[in-house]
Amino acid sequence: MFSNIEKKRLQLSKCLDATKKSQLGQFFTPARIAEFMASLFPDASGTCRLLDAGAGMGALSAAFLERWASGGFHFDQVILDAFEIDKSLTPHLYDTLQRYINLKGFSLNVIERDFIEEATRHLSGDMFSGRELEYTHAILNPPYKKIRSNSVQRLALRRVGIETVNLYSAFVALAIALTIPGGHIIAIIPRSFCNGPYYRSFRRFILSHTSIHRIHLFDSRRKPFKDDNVLQETMIIHMQRSGVQGPVIISLSDDESFSDIEKTEYRFEDLVKPGDPENFIHIPMSSHGRIVELPSLARHSLDEIGLSVSTGPVVDFRLREYLHQLPEEGTVPLLYPAHFSNAGIMWPIKEMKKPNAIECNDITKKWLFPIGYYCTVRRFSSKEERRRIVANVVDPDIFQGASLLGFENHLNVFHEQRKGMSKKLAWGLATYLNAPIVDDYFRQFNGHTQVNATDLRCLRYPSREKLIRLGELAMERTFDPYEINLQLEALKND
After folding, report:
1. Which of 18, 87, 266, 462 has the fewest C-beta atoms under 10 angstroms from its C-beta?
2. What pTM did the predictor assign?
3. How far apart, in whole angstroms, are the C-alpha atoms of residue 299 and residue 309?
4. Distances in Å between the alpha carbon of 292 and those of 60, 144, 283, 439?
């Protein structure tokens, strides 16, 4: 049966209109992933009210029903609400689920309406909503698409106390809200919600309404949804509504075959640090690895060491008319990630596609920094890169007497009250950030390719004095990356 569903999924993925898939945020669930997700539900009996929001072709519902039909569940009755707004998919959804229509106790409701609209109407107490939406189980692969801040969907979500920026987090939050106490929710979603400011409210919603039982990671970002060219890191999460939070099982497999799956149990307090105002979710780099902690001397906030970090303020397409390929009179240096490498800064780069300079005038001056020593961290990397955090020192001597500097938006900039810092401090900060132990720690809660300024603010740092000492050492010699870990350990007792 599943081979037929998988064959149809592959056919539809190729022939469906790419623009429409993008508009709806559609990514179809491979059969093996659907089977694995269904296997995570604990056995239960009685009546099951099952939600599949964004059901697509019905692979997730079919996996759940297949487990029930084979004796994996002991329900007397299963009532399925399968929401699917794309009318071109509902014939395939009916075709998939009609196979189970003769199962004793099975009732099917295919709802061809907007799940967010229906769910928020119900949750807001609309007496004309017309359908009872309460579930014991929810299984979903929600759509992935940003929600505009002024959209009808965003306003509807706010009315029921859900503040979020993407369809996937909206679907999961609504599924949680519609699940009865003790009910189970299993979803495959991007890891991007684990950190960053945009998903802060969503993290708090999850942690205040559910207990997390299981998280499954894929070592390869490309393989699980390779047929849909999905590059997001994905995870499968098992939550229980109003459950008692205990240890969390973290599992890992290379891909959707689950042939090399490994599991380890962790304390919840190791994943979500007590007292963390951001509620970042730290996930170990491997299922058999330990939770990585920062060096013990790294216990200070940026405020405490007198520094700040900001996203590079120059957004090039908004200031295009003031950009110059090469420096000339009336311009100042403009730095992009491409100007930085392991060897340091190379500026200007004549053959680079991006500009090297920006005019200094009354319009642009507010986006510029005074010349000085800075530390930069590029905002984007790929999962396959060895390091997520890549820090560099900006040396003002390179820029031949320029008075101001521009930092493009794909860089994060560490500064001291919007001015440069001492040379030793800049070198010490960059060296600390390039330590493998810092990068490993960061990857535990950073589940996507973006390094946000908020993430860097939430890190802890050595004292200003220790950073300056580390900078002195780094200026004397070039450290192998893993030597930095040893230097941090040695500085603890210095």
Report:
1. 87
2. 0.76
3. 17
4. 34, 30, 9, 10
